[in-house]
Amino acid sequence: MLHLLHSLRLKARPSFPSSLSPSVIFTRSMASIDLRNALSDNQSALESQANAVRQLKSSAAAKSEIDAAVEALNALKLEKSTIERELHALINADGNGEGSGNKEAFRQAVVNTLERRLFYIPSFKIYRGVAGLYDYGPPGCSVKSNVLSFWRQHFVLEENMLEVDCPCVTPEVVLKASGHVDKFTDLMVKDDKTGTCYRADHLLKDFCNEKLQKDLTISSEKAAELKHLLATLDDLSAEELGAKIKEFGIVAPDTKNPLSDPYPFNLMFQTSIGPSGSSTGYMRPETAQGIFVNFRDLYYYNGSKLPFAAAQIGQAFRNEISPRQGLLRVREFTLAEIEHFVDPEDKSHPKYSEVADLEFFMFPRQEQVSGQSAKRIRLGEAVSKGIVNNETLGYFIGRVYLFLTHLGIDKERLRFRQHLANEMAHYAADCWDAEIESSYGWIECVGIADRSAYDLRAHSEKSGVQLVAQEKFSEPKEVEKLVIAPVKKVLGQAFKGSQKNVVEALEAMKEKEALDMKATLESKGEVEFEVCTLGKTVTITKNMVNIQKEKKKEHQRVFTPSVIEPSFGIGRIIYCLFEHSFYTRPSKAGDEQLNVFRFPPLVAPIKCTVFPLVQNQKFEEVAKLISKSLTAAGISHRIDITGTSIGKRYARTDELGVPFAITVDSTTSVTLRERDSKDQVRVDVEKAASVVREITEGQTTWAHVWSTFPHQSSTATDE
Amino acid sequence: MLHLLHSLRLKARPSFPSSLSPSVIFTRSMASIDLRNALSDNQSALESQANAVRQLKSSAAAKSEIDAAVEALNALKLEKSTIERELHALINADGNGEGSGNKEAFRQAVVNTLERRLFYIPSFKIYRGVAGLYDYGPPGCSVKSNVLSFWRQHFVLEENMLEVDCPCVTPEVVLKASGHVDKFTDLMVKDDKTGTCYRADHLLKDFCNEKLQKDLTISSEKAAELKHLLATLDDLSAEELGAKIKEFGIVAPDTKNPLSDPYPFNLMFQTSIGPSGSSTGYMRPETAQGIFVNFRDLYYYNGSKLPFAAAQIGQAFRNEISPRQGLLRVREFTLAEIEHFVDPEDKSHPKYSEVADLEFFMFPRQEQVSGQSAKRIRLGEAVSKGIVNNETLGYFIGRVYLFLTHLGIDKERLRFRQHLANEMAHYAADCWDAEIESSYGWIECVGIADRSAYDLRAHSEKSGVQLVAQEKFSEPKEVEKLVIAPVKKVLGQAFKGSQKNVVEALEAMKEKEALDMKATLESKGEVEFEVCTLGKTVTITKNMVNIQKEKKKEHQRVFTPSVIEPSFGIGRIIYCLFEHSFYTRPSKAGDEQLNVFRFPPLVAPIKCTVFPLVQNQKFEEVAKLISKSLTAAGISHRIDITGTSIGKRYARTDELGVPFAITVDSTTSVTLRERDSKDQVRVDVEKAASVVREITEGQTTWAHVWSTFPHQSSTATDE
């Protein structure tokens, strides 16, 4: 059950939050161990040399002798500062890739632009907001809606998935069955005096990071211990975490008061359904459960055939203890989840060949454990070598790769990382995360897990409704079945109140165990048998149980399907997309840096701006005409008839990531400008809207437009 | 503040839930009063005639005399049953239009089809569900997503609205400001013994309806009283409701136990944000507040210009006491809301002329009060006559009409009903509901309200952040302003602890009142002045306050914008659309009724099915080829290669409302069939997908396709 806890916690969050995976930490630490050892050696040498100098001075030794000793001391000091500098550099790289300063400055530039242009707004800002809640403002909302439309096209439509839409309010019984009521928790500590709450692992992590980064005097052994602790933080029990907090003397960061012992805090928002107050409900922590509970109807809707996939897009909620990492760790977010149901005995996929030749960064378990880094692998090879468990899982990994890169995620900063054994639920067959590198490190944005039959079984058990599939045989099959029949009367006389435990233990025997028992009973007449639930061994005699094989005719096979679940954190993907799309370039005058988002037209919040070169009624009329055609074609655009300079207007739209701008500089033809190249072509007024529509809908490309239409030098519409 | 309660409660629910508006009840009751009076007369006559017969018999009168009296008695009995039958018919029409039996049977047929084909699924069905929560299954989800896409195109894109996306979890302060925390309540009564909760108005309504429908002996006065009660149910206070429940002796319907007094139950789902438990939050009851709190940023984003509109689509939540009316009154639903901000001094709309000539059913206040019915009015006339308050409100009424009818809502069963004075909030300038007639009666599906400056003022006040707009004057204007300056020192000496109340009351004076005071002070030296907050009158002397007019130069006008709010209950619109689209027709053999949804292609969950006429590899390959082209064109479709008869396959897709079917009956051309006409044409294999795409996207029509391509008799693909 520890694994269950683990898997639930991981599902929509990075496995090593805001930090690196253990393997990366591991490789980096080799260098830092050398340096720390060198520093420690240098420190000893320094101390003994300083002693030597003092002794020489107090014993009034010869000046030349003292000078030589001081020179040696200075050399050691110089060496010390060199080692320290190197160690500092390494520590800063640790956890941040290439120096945390740059990354943070970059992030600040992106986030400033995003907030200033209302991609995001901290929710309820005029009331000073609520941590972990953000609004999408107009351009952000538009990007989100484009991403979701493309998701529907790429997954739901392309794969004929069954999309459903279930409520967020969920009764307790459903989340009891899924394990969330009992296990969806984070460990929390409270300030003993003020009652302020903290995540226990965060405090421990902060302590370790600070120690590692600022305290150069700690030994390499100590450093290794802290790093190991960081890497295994998610595995610690409440007791272990509490012990570490005590051991390190960690106190409340704000008040320096002592802290309570860690205890679990359930991350679901709780509420009450109906007026009586007796019916507990929760805001769903994921959308998947809505699909599982509908399995029977959906299977029937699909003509009682496997495989099929159901999908859902919707809000999910997590009442984080103390949200960090800005837009990546929020209390309400949009998930898009797919549950692909397959026969556990046949996980092939008919369209697998369409993705098998894709090659991209994968980070298999083996490479992580042995301290290597992610490497380019052909997907087909990963599946055929068994690195990826099965074809269907491989197919979805490939489709997710295509989805993300099509949106504009940088291929070089995208990897598929396999879960380590300790990260995975005990029932899971295999699990891969699509991780995207951002200024916060590698972020889990999509989880792709083969969850076997776990979820359907859990709901079958709790609801009493069988969530199974049937395979009808073309002709009946004769099968041999082992039948274990305890003789209850005899067992009752022998074991009295414990009879039930013994009966259950007998019935639960695996085939081999039962056959062994049968052989022993036949040869010796009795056998020692361990009953776990009694915690002891009992003696079973021949007359207590009948074990034999029987032949039966079966017309169908009834089984619980496996589920392969790609689960998309839409907000995280969008945030990473913002970082990957952002760049700056100097203004024409060279006096300032201008911000640009290089969104592909598919994603861009506004596809096109239209403006008259100068304020002029004729030009304005043409601009309005083009705007009307764009609206009719369903192309989102803005018309800007302010008198601002063209350069400023371009800068304004570049910052919103608008890929095309139409400048009306005549009444017959217009200038069409592409955002990133700043190239311009001349297009007839009547054609302008349709050219933009064709590029936006992917029927043509800018390269083709550039080769077809007359070029326009930038002097006419001076930037 | 009573009005506030009213307005909040009405916002997304019908004003006369599952019943008729007072005016309709009023007109119908005239006829029923006549009948009830006739029945009462008949009853008296019957009784005296029966007495007469008894007397004649006991006095041993002549047989002929007795016979004549009995005959008269029988005639009266016959008359009674005729009146009763008429009254029954009228009562059934009341509240249901044309006999509740038919309506209920129709509804049952629609709902059965919807649930069987998974348009809807009661949520968490395997756990026996939760009242008021429904899932959209695959076809329902697709219809919903089509409706929302069209909403975005028709409103957001067409009007360049600023779309935002705010969280559902909302901190208390926001909903305190909006009035929901204090006033968003329904009155509830509890079973004194079991604690079961009921809506007080529901119990009273049920009692009145039952009395009116089943008890024919009540006097016409009593009937009129009950009907009046039904019509004014929403206006009753807790005390009035409680008194009526006592007066009528209403008890708990399930147990017949006595009931508690009515008390308010807040309809918001409450939760707690963060781990401390001290920060109360609610699941938003509407999406509008997210827009209001962002007004300042959105206004700035729009270049500090009015008018502009913001829009939001999202989930909203109401913890109904006991949900009824199936899919119309649910605990979680999707709202699409627009907040159009305008200068209160200029509510014209630039695109108003585009809708002014639309003509449709409107039901102005005057017609309701005078007992007339809704009538066709040209929108332009309604605005110019002042029936609709202003152009912008009129513009949105027109756009809503176009939106609904484009989706497939029947024009004859759609009306725009103006709110009566008692339904409207005190601050509202005007309010119209788009009501759609369904088997439940007329259902409020869209509310279109001019809410004046109420919401922005409420949040300005609570947050301390000014939510205002500026109009910059081209040149400064000289304005005369009244300045009221209380002399605090003198007031303090005179009124001690009450000084603050007096100062505030003086400062709050309207211009006329202040000028009157100034005149009186100048003539008499003192004046009696009522201070509401003290509940008494005080004497103000000349030295206590300076009142005078000052001239000032102003460079701009600062004002709180008015907001015009069209608010769409998406689930209600979709349900009404289902009812309006549903019909049955006999199968070819005539042995059964087949269900059809006549969705327009825009709305249809699946646009096209593709099936081979017979199971045959060549035909299957063609089918798959066409399917691939449809996917590439983004047209949702299903391919059906089961061997079922074509007739059955058509029936199956008709029931899902699929408008087109492609039957592959050769390898060069195919049969394309339209759902409602059942007409068929032959189309080349290569053209099939693009023809379907063009009709679906509105570039061509079936009529045009029918006139272009060769017709196909239905013998080839026998239904």
Automatic annotation (TrEMBL), chains A, B:
PANTHER family reported in the protein's UniProt record: GLYCINE--TRNA LIGASE (PTHR10745:SF0), GLYCYL-TRNA SYNTHETASE/DNA POLYMERASE SUBUNIT GAMMA-2 (PTHR10745)
Species, as recorded: Lupinus luteus (European yellow lupine)
Coiled coil: 59-93
Catalysed reactions listed for this entry: tRNA(Gly) + glycine + ATP = glycyl-tRNA(Gly) + AMP + diphosphate; 2 ATP + H(+) = P(1),P(4)-bis(5'-adenosyl) tetraphosphate + diphosphate
Entry keywords, A to Z: Aminoacyl-tRNA synthetase, ATP-binding, Cell projection, Coiled coil, Cytoplasm, Ligase, Nucleotide-binding, Protein biosynthesis, Transferase
GO cellular component: mitochondrion
BP GO terms, sorted: mitochondrial glycyl-tRNA aminoacylation
SUPFAM superfamilies listed in its UniProt record: Class II aaRS ABD-related (SSF52954), Class II aaRS and biotin synthetases (SSF55681), S15/NS1 RNA-binding domain (SSF47060)
NCBIfam families in alphabetical order: glyS_dimeric, PRK04173.1
Annotated WHEP-TRS domain residues: 38-94
Stated name of the protein: Glycine--tRNA ligase
Quaternary structure note: Homodimer.
GO molecular function annotation: ATP binding; glycine-tRNA ligase activity; transferase activity
Top EC class of this enzyme: ligase
Residue ranges occupied by any Aminoacyl-transfer RNA synthetases class-II family profile domain in the UniProt entry: 108-586
PROSITE patterns: AA_TRNA_LIGASE_II, WHEP_TRS_2
Family per record: Belongs to the class-II aminoacyl-tRNA synthetase family.
EC number assigned by the record: 6.1.1.14
Subcellular location: Cell projection, Axon; Cytoplasm
